[in-house]
Write a structure and sequence with these properties.
alpha/beta, Purple Acid Phosphatase, chain A, domain 2, 11 helices
């Protein structure tokens, strides 16, 4: 995707339907609402995906972001929640009366707010689902990169060969129904990140109420020695697990985004506290807005290393009332 190198960019983390907070953030960044579109005379917004699900005003958030993209005021990545919505609504090619994302109770709960808020707007939802196919899985602007969860050079290179702009199609979504397929593994890596199985059959129940046998891992750790060195999620590992040494095989299988690589921006990971770089070339901009955290942006100009002073945010202090 071509981006104007003379323009400034405001990269924005996971919105999840918090449209009031998004409006406040855009206003604080100098964007103004004109003819139904939030605009800035010299800058462009770049959204890291996950506009939908969980939050109180998902429909309005989609309209806001879509209007900015259509007017040339923004670009938006696909997040795992947009991909999941496509999977929920896309029939499998190989199994009748079944969908790419199975209609289980757990999957239904994840999409529940989106489906309810579009209950009286079925045509609009179909239009937004079609628009999701225009959202790339990554943006490589040369001096900086964006992906929802994890930059995997090998998988992105393979994806470029089939989809040069990073935008997938229905055939790709249907192929993702097959576990271990190129489509399934690529979307899992780019949109959900890397993970590792907990030892000894252990499972953990997170603050979100879901029980998992895997934990999210860093894809940039330098010389990690233990499980605790690579964990990257809001829910901490039990002390005895965090102290467990990594095997040589586990170390070899870890992905690594080097410090000499271009600036990389991700969302997805539900961070907390004061927004700051993870490393001089890596930032996560998801600070749990929909859980009354912060909706965060980074104001990118021509720098090649992150400036801690250029993180901007609004506090999400109370629930936003749906219309």
């Amino acid at each position: 995707m071509h981006l104007d190198t003379d323009r400034g960019y405001d990269l924005i983390g996971d919105v999840h339907g918090c449209v009031h907070s998004l409006e406040h953030l855009l206003d604080s960044l100098g964007y103004r609402l004109h003819a139904g579109v939030w605009r800035h005379p010299r800058r462009m917004a770049l959204f890291l995906g996950d506009i939908i699900d969980r939050g109180p005003r998902i429909r309005e958030a989609l309209h806001l972001v879509h209007a900015m993209v259509e007017a040339g005021q923004a670009h938006c990545l696909m997040g795992n929640h947009e991909f999941n919505a496509l999977g929920w609504h896309t029939p499998r090619a190989d199994v009748s009366n079944s969908y790419v994302r199975p209609h289980t109770a757990r999957h239904g709960r994840q999409l529940q707010e989106t489906l309810q808020q579009f209950d009286a707007y079925a045509d609009e939802l179909r239009e937004f689902l079609a628009w999701f196919y225009e959202l790339p899985l990554f943006i490589d602007a040369g001096r900086f990169r964006m992906v929802h969860a994890c930059w995997d050079e090998a998988r992105i290179a393979a994806l470029r060969q089939r989809y040069p702009q990073g935008c997938i199609d229905q055939a790709f979504v249907q192929a993702a129904a097959e576990p271990g397929s190129f489509a399934a593994s690529t979307c899992s890596r780019l949109l959900c990140g890397t993970d590792m199985r907990l030892p000894d059959g252990l499972t953990l129940t997170g603050d979100d109420g879901y029980t998992r046998a895997h934990f999210r891992t860093k894809f940039w750790a330098e010389a990690p020695q233990t499980y605790g060195d690579i964990v990257f999620q809001p829910d901490a590992l039990p002390a005895h697990v965090a102290q467990t040494p990594l095997s040589a095989q586990q170390k070899d299988q870890l992905l690594h985004y080097g410090e000499d690589q271009p600036l990389l921006f991700v969302g997805h990971y539900w961070r907390r506290g004061r927004p700051a770089p993870i490393r001089p070339n890596l930032a996560c901009l998801d600070y749990s807005a929909v859980m009354f955290g912060k909706l965060v942006a980074y104001r990118l100009d021509q720098e090649t290393r992150l400036d801690p002073q250029k993180f901007c945010w609004v506090e999400v202090e109370r629930p936003e009332a749906p219309r």
